[in-house]
Amino acid sequence: MRPDYLSHLDGVVCNFLDHFIKESLINIVNLK
Q1: Please, which contacts does 1-4 make with residues 24 or more away whose CB atoms are closer than 8 Å?
Q2: In terms of domain of life, where is this protein from (predicted)?
């Protein structure tokens, strides 16, 4: 088992990446 702080960090990174990807997709769609 990994320490709790690693699991928390994974959650933060996943949320950040998910938000970043969505923002990028919106920007790409708006550019076209």
Answers
A1: none
A2: Bacteria
